[in-house]
Each structure stands twice: as structure tokens, then as C-alpha cells.
Amino acid sequence: MVRPMESDSGARLERLSGMLKRRGFILPAFEIHGGSKGLYDFGPNGGRLRNRVNQLWLEHWTSMGNVTEISCPTITPYEVLEASGHVGEFSDYMTSCISCDEVSRADTLLEEFHPNPDSLSKLELQSLLEKSAPQCPACGTNKWSTIISQNLMFSTRIGAGNSGREGFLRPETAQGMFTSFPALYRHFREKLPFGAVQIGKGYRNEISPRQGMIRLREFNMAEMEYFIDPEAPLNHDYTQWSGLQMVMLSEDKGELSITIAEAVDSGIIRHGTVGLFMAKTYDFLVNVGIDKSRIRFRQHETNEMAHYATDCWDAEIHGSYGWVECVGIAHRGCYDLQSHENYTGKTLRARREFPEPKEVIIDGWTIEGSVAGPAFRSQAGQVKDAVEKLPSDTQFPCEIILDKEVVVVDSSHVKRLQRTDLITGEWFIPHVVEPAFGIDRIIWHILDHAYQEIEKQDESYTVMRLNPDVVPVDYAVFPLFEKNGMQEIAQKVSNILNSKRGVVAIYDSSGSIGRRYARADEIGIPICVTIDHQSLDDDSVTLRQRDTGEQKRVQILDL
Q1: DSSP string, 494-525
Q2: 267 to each of 252, 258, 264, 275, 313, how far by Cα in Å?
Q3: How far is CA 446 from CA 297, 366, 435, in A?
């Protein structure tokens, strides 16, 4: 009998967590020193599983053909995150228990009193906190301090002594891909659309880490920035998902069971590329072992989205902690490239060619080089760009702003610019669609969904029915006994398997064969190879399948 996931959920979660720690999947970091909230180790089995999930994710997106992988530093200069808005906006609201000083996120405290407290303003959260008076998770009282905003980034110094500059540990991988846009544009021969992917660490000084792997202070994330021309026609083909009814929670329509094509055509999904990436996200999650019946997509409400986003959907997975956001798929417009361009003065643009050349009348201003050059020196180029953007009726002298510095331009610095040009194209700031994956949360749900407790003949044991593509170990090799040459054959078989690229095999000779099968099942090994007396005679071995228990004999050479 298989014990269902939902029964006795609290005790099941405790048993699952204990097994994951005992078998080296996920365990508290620095435990001998008391540990630290929000920090976990991936142990010997967890580390291999995580690397396989990462590799599958990379292959999933780079197989599109116009997507490449890059890797950017995790230490990020202050200016980068100031330009992106993180310095001013990357915050959560927190409150402290007056009795015990326990700090909590305000929206987390209020989840049972509001369907989406994360969408509330500071004043709305404060009002709801005072009205509902939730209990402190540490001491049980219900008196709370005034809600304040707390920036979540870890600050650091780049460089030593007085020469050091402010920086942060990155809260996301995205910004390095935006600042690398010129290199990516050259790499793809200056043709849109294209994407960049990156897998790596992110850091957020969470106010109250909770629910194990769900909210961490150091975490693994995988993101893609897909750059598109907003005026180019979309030619996405959704036919491979035509028979797939996906569960969607639409802002306007509520819960639906609908195909991707229907959702895009009806405007529920507001951009076709967002829809394409929702479908590809679903495929990835199912391919790594997420139960397809426990996946849904929730659309962000208008007051929940960032001001620059036109649409955003979360892929949510149901498990031991309920529905949890694991992927965000957002249409970010041109906000990020525009922000970095405005901040630095560097061009982050792509070019589109017109079907037919256009005649354009230029009536404006440019600089008088012989006067403006000596007057503005190194700033002359920036002044020229700014002056040429001024309207034709501008009166001089006038003030322009360069890198937050005010520069006065008078009539001797400029001259009239009047001409007719024939132009063949124009420069524009690309838009971006971003799928962002929380790898740790996905791995947690892979393990959660794979974990099964089986009761048989008054005994119970655990099987991790992991997808063979993500298992930490592919084969377990057992000598029935370590004598009569069985151990030598078993070691030879183990060496043969491990010599194959991408294959991991372990050798285990401890305990009865039944106990060894049970240990292999507990970490999800799909196939066990047993060497017995017959192996000594005919070089055959027994293969035992994890999920069915089926056994068959094959020749060693056929493995």
C-alpha cells in the first residue's frame, strides 16, 4: 500500500525532511556551529541532483537555437543596482513582536487574513495588522511594532581601504545579462530575437526565512532574458501543446482549464512570447519529475505587478507547503535596458530596417564645434547628442543635464541644423520577456513529489520515484557476497559503468541484499545490478528495476 501524500501531512513532512538530511540530499548548513536560518547544504546526493537539474534547464532553453549561456559575477557594483532600481525598491515590509522581538514579514503574518497580502501597500498592511492582530509564531502574543521597509540586499565593499567602492551580493542574475547586451547583440549578428541564460547564486537577506528550502538567504536561480523587437510580428507555433489543458488563474476570468493557444488568442495571456515560455516552462517541470496535476499558472494582478511590466505569470507547484511560486514569467518591456542607458549614457539599442527608405526633414540644432569643443572638452560629445535632441524652437542659453551635472549651453555653442535625410532604419530599445526559475524550490518539489512511503507485510519503506534524468545515482552494483570472486566482478562492473560519460554508479556490499535494495530505493536509484554465483559461470548479472521490482538477467557486455 502506498501512503498518500496528503495524509498525516505534518508527520510526513517531518519524515521526508529527516530522510533528506540522513541520506545527504538537503541538510542545514554549518550545523556543528548551530546553523543559520535560510542557509542549507546540498549533500552528496543533493549536489548531484541539483547539477543534473541545472544541466537539463540549460539544455532545455539553449535548444531553441537563439539562446546562449553566460556567467556574470555575483558581486555587483552599487551603481548597477541603483540604475536597476534595486537600491530604492528591493524591500519587504517587516514588523517586530513587542513581547519577544521576533521579526516577521508583514505579508507573511497576514496570509490567513487576506488572499494576497503581498499586493498591499504599507498603509494597508498596517491597517490589516492592527485589525487582525495575528499571533507571534515565536511566543504566541499579538502585539506588533509599526511596519517598516527593509532592503533585502547584502551590502559589501569592492576593493580595500579608501579605494573600495560600495557593492552588493546580487539579488538576481538578470542585471548582468542586461549590462552585457552589447556583447550579446554582436554575438547574434545584430539580429533579434535572442536570449541569454544564466544559472547561479542569488542572495537576499530575508527577514524571516521559513519553510525549509522555500525561502532562503542564499539560493540557486536560473533566468533567461529574451530580447525582442516589440513591433515585429510573432510567429510562435503552439501546436505541440494543442491537446494540453493547463490550469490558469486569470486576473479577469478566474480559474480556467485552457490551452496556451486559446489563452493567447483570447488575450488572457497578453503577449505571445509569454505564452510560449509558459508552455515550455510546463514541459521542463514535468520532464524533471514534477507531478503535472500539481502545476498551475497564476496571473499577477495589475496592482501586484511591477509598474513597467505588461504581464506576469507565476508557475505554482503544490506540495507539502501548499501552492508555492517556483517560476515567474514576466514581460518587462524596455525598462531594464532603458534604465541602464539613462544612467550610463551608453547606447543599449538594436536596429530595425524599414521595408522602404523614409524621407525625414531634420529641423533642429547641433553644436558649433570650434566653440563648443574647447568649452565643453571631454563632454562635447554628450553635449552634441543632447543638443540634437532639443526641439527646433529652443531658446538659448538653456540648461541640459549630463550625468546629473547641469551644463549651460548658449547661442555661441550651437548652430542651426536643417536638412533632408533618406533613412533606411531606426534604433530602438528592445523589450524583454524573462522566465525566472527558483531552482531550490523546484528541487524541493521534485523530492516531495517523488517521495513515497510503502507499507508491505507489516513493514514500511521509502521509495524516491525520481525521474531517471535527475537521479543522483544511476546504478547500484551489489556483490551477493564478497567472496569467491564476486567482489572482483562487481568492482569491474562498477568501473565499467562509471567510465561512461554522464553515468554515476555506486558499489555497495554492506548488509543483506534486501537492505541494499531498500537503501537504493530510498535515494531513487533506478537500476540495481547484482553479481551472484551464476555470474561466476556465465558473466551474467541480475538487473532489478526500482519502480516495478522486475528482475532480469543480462550479460555484462550488454550493460
Answers
A1: HHHHHTSTT--EEE--SS-HHHHHHHHHHTT-
A2: 10, 12, 5, 10, 14
A3: 18, 61, 19
The strand pair at 246-250 and 40-42 is best described as unpaired
Please name each of the domains of the chain with its CATH number. 91-151 (3.30.40.230), 354-426 (no CATH), 473-558 (3.40.50.800)
**Rounded to 5 degrees, what are φ and ψ at 556?**
-55, -40
Question: Whole-structure pTM over 0.90, yes or no?
Answer: no
How far, in Å, CA of 36 to CA of 194, rounded? 40
CA distances from 223 to 27, 57, 169, 179, 254 (A): 25, 10, 17, 15, 28
Beta-carbon contacts of 237 under 8 Å, excluding residues fewer than 6 positions away, are none
Q: Give ∠ CA 179-181-183 in degrees, rounded to 5.
A: 110
| Secondary structure letter of residue 45 according to DSSP | H
257 contacts 235 by C-beta, under 8 angstroms: no
In tens digits, the chain (559 residues) has pLDDT values of 444 444 467 899 999 999 999 999 999 999 999 999 999 999 999 999 999 999 999 999 999 999 999 999 999 999 999 999 999 888 899 999 999 998 998 998 998 899 888 888 899 999 999 999 999 988 999 999 999 998 999 999 999 988 899 999 999 999 999 999 999 999 999 999 999 999 999 999 998 887 889 999 999 999 999 999 999 999 999 999 999 999 999 999 999 999 999 999 999 999 999 999 999 999 999 999 999 999 999 999 988 888 788 999 999 999 999 999 999 999 999 999 999 999 998 999 999 999 999 998 889 999 999 999 999 998 999 999 999 999 999 999 999 988 778 999 999 999 999 989 899 999 999 999 999 999 999 999 999 999 999 887 777 889 999 999 999 999 999 999 999 999 999 999 999 999 999 999 999 999 999 999 999 999 999 999 999 999 999 999 999 999 999 999 999 988 8
Q: Which residue has the cell 539579488?
A: 171
At position 392, the amino acid (one-letter code) is: S
Question: Does the CA dihedral 4-7-9-11 come out positive or negative?
Answer: negative
Residues 255, 301: contact at Cβ < 8 Å? no
Residue with cell 534604433: 427
The closest of 47, 7, 153, 4 to 91, measured between CA atoms, is: 153
Q: Apex CA 500: angle with CA 464 and CA 551, to 5°?
A: 45
Q: Please return the burial class of 392, using the count of CB atoms within 10 Å of its CB with bins 0-12, 13-18 and 19+.
A: exposed
Burial label for 472, CB within 10 Å (0-12, 13-18, 19+), is: buried
Give the pairing type, strands 295-299 and 322-333.
unpaired
Q: Which residue in 472, 400, 418 sits closest to 443, CA to CA? A: 472
509 φψ region: left (φ > 0), alpha (ψ -120 to 50), beta (else): alpha
**Which single residue is written with the C-alpha cell 535572442?**
194
Q: Are 464 and 456 in contact (CB under 8 A)?
A: no
